[in-house]
Amino acid sequence: MATTSASVFNPALALNNYSKEQLHVAFTSNLRMSTSCFTKFQLKHFSSSLIPSQSTRIPICAATSPTSPSETTATTFHGLCYVLGNNIDTDQIIPAEYLTLVPSKPDEYRKLGSFALIGLPSTYETRFIESGEVQSKYSIVIGGENFGCGSSREHAPVALGAAGVKAVVAESYARIFFRNSVATGEVYPLESEGRLCDECSTGDVVTVELAKSLLINHTTGKEYKLKPIGDAGPVIDAGGIFAYARKTGMIPSAAPS
Amino acid sequence: MPTSTITASGSTSFIIKKKELGVSTFSSTSFNIIPKKRCSKKVVSVMTPTQSQRPPSTTGSVKTALTMTEKILARASERSALVPGENVWVNVDVLMTHDVCGPGTIGIFKKEFGENAKVWDREKIVIIPDHYIFTSDERANRNVDILRDFCGEQDIKYFYDIKDLGDFRANPDYKGVCHVALAQEGHCRPGEVLLGTDSHTCNAGAFGQFASGIGNTDAGFVMGAGKLLLKVPPTLRFVMDGEMPSYLLAKDLILQIIGEISVAGATYKSMEFVGSTVESLSKLSYIFAYMSTTVFHAKMEERMTLCNMVVEAGGKNGVVPADSNDYISTLRFLSEYRFDVSKLEPLVAKPHSPDNRALARECKDVKIDRVYIGSCTGGKTEDFFAVAKLFQASGKKVKVPTFIVPATQKVWMDIYSIPVPGSGGKTCSQIFEEAGCDTPASPSCGACLGGPRDTYARMNEPQASHIMSMNCLFSVCVSTTNRNFPGRMGHKEGQIYLASPYTAAASALTGFVTDPREFLQ
């Protein structure tokens, strides 16, 4: 998950042409979107602000960030989608020249986000992040097969999360990217039942409903089944494996100092 | 040496000198898997045992035949049996990290285990700066400093440091590319579990161990806990039979396999390489010969090439069984692929995917502007010997800039010191110079993954200036490395053809993608 509230973005408020879109989409889908997008959103903050007693420690934001048990689980993501093809490798997600940035350092974490998907070839005409911006307006990435293949760099899911991406929806994932997404809790790696990258276009307004394993494309008015996230869901909800292990009592609730 | 010994319970006899215990061997029949305490690190020699053929049922010790990967994970999880799909807590024998992922891993370790926490075992963490070394990028230099500080603070036993960037030879501790350094420094041992923060960690499967790449967060966990939850992968078996033609190398075999099963064909799976071709590359004694550091063993390096690119098919690990397995037909494999190696031809992977397979001769009209020989995949001693052999056979000069980047300091020394067979005593470096190659560079990952802008041989421009007049739209590189995704070696528009060292050398001589048979037959 992204760790700043700045990434919570509602295109319904920001897009001037959205009222035009509303005329074309199914009313029920629209209703679902508008009732869910504010109520279930989970706001996260830098871990340093949550653990004041550990102020001597370097705040690490790309590491798993503990969340308080009272927080509600994010079950719905709503926003614009950015659509990619097959075999998007981690060099395209974050090219090697930016790997000198250390994800566990907060300022470098943010910089990593600003370079997310900068390695895409010029065939992708729409930029994922506008020049001058540090985050993307696209909070859901839709891909084809074998998303995140190649290098094991954890910088890849971290860069997406830092850029404001909540979920990736792809036909299938490369193993290490999937695992890194869950371990860090940066993004939900969701699998689609069909090939959504051919069904959706960059800029479409979509909603992902985790509990129902559903993706709704409000722009086209279509709904798609996703494969259930399963046991990985609660780990990402918690903010990664360490946070999950603490929350569930697998490891002591605070790091020893 | 290994943290466990694996002994045969049958009547098969072994010759192991007690004083040199620390290495034993896999028998062809049965295994009792007995975790033991660490033995001293010393170079040992072991004879390959004579093996009598016995089905496992006669020994009574093996109820279900396990694949190589399952055996290793069973030992590491202290279980007698397991099945693919099970999640098991695995004790890790070695954790490797480097300058790109080490600082992030350390950051997570400190945050989660505490600022004053100690690593789980200072002798089981191997830290190898290798990615961004010879660069003026301040953040890259700082990352090596972070590793050094941490290794000092934690008293990490195996840290291959570099301080003098001006001359790598002034740093005797510095090795270079982590996967080759791990092998050369004796950190790859049969039967063990090696995890590393690099996808090509699977390289070490060549030594009959479970080796796989992980992310920073998982590595941070291992650093503190010494174990990790892993899912036991099902095994895909690749049977390669037939005599290997003289113009083929292991790189051709793995490009053939990836082309066959695609870049996602082995996702979450283990790839096991067997067959008479592989067996000719796979005697247990080779492993120990390789680890005795003074001996350069070509056949081990070919096995490393095979396992190195397993991740390019999505594989979790690759493994070459340490010795032939008599009851292999009873093992549970998800599927089996068979290849007659004698019929294969030299291959390339065209841009922009490692499974975009083509015959080298089908690409003879592809004009190139550079050749890159290096990386964990194609920058080992044997790879440079292959290049030198082809140059020597042709007697010609290269037509495009040809970059030589030895993986490690030892490979660099081999290039400058070992005579190439059949060359009248010339070394690789002499042959490269005569052929007009660039002077061999300082050992590191180099331009295989692009890296900082000032990285040697990086593809910085969409097209090389000297070929603008040749009507090439983009810079085109034939490379012995492992990936050709967009932007992998620098510029997004750069075109990378992955090839064997023979094919890369032949292409350097013509300026086009070239089948090495033009020079080797």
From TrEMBL, chain A:
A biological process from GO: glucosinolate biosynthetic process
Domain Aconitase A/isopropylmalate dehydratase small subunit swivel: 138-185
Catalytic activity: (2R,3S)-3-isopropylmalate = (2S)-2-isopropylmalate
Keyword line: Lyase
GO molecular function, one term: 3-isopropylmalate dehydratase activity
Keyword Lyase appears in the UniProt entry: yes
GO cellular component: chloroplast stroma
Class of the enzyme per the UniProt entry, highest EC level: lyase
Pfam families: Aconitase_C
Subunit structure: Heterodimer of the large LEUC/IIL1 subunit and the small LEUD (SSU1, SSU2 or SSU3) subunits.
Family: Belongs to the LeuD family. LeuD type 2 subfamily.
Name used for this protein in its record: 3-isopropylmalate dehydratase
Automatic annotation (TrEMBL), chain B:
Keyword Nucleotide-binding: no
Gene Ontology molecular-function annotations: 3-isopropylmalate dehydratase activity; 4 iron, 4 sulfur cluster binding; metal ion binding
Keywords carried by this UniProt record: 4Fe-4S, Iron, Iron-sulfur, Lyase, Metal-binding
Keyword 4Fe-4S: yes
GO biological process entries: L-leucine biosynthetic process
Protein name in UniProt: Aconitase/3-isopropylmalate dehydratase large subunit alpha/beta/alpha domain-containing protein
Domain Aconitase/3-isopropylmalate dehydratase large subunit alpha/beta/alpha: 88-325, 361-511
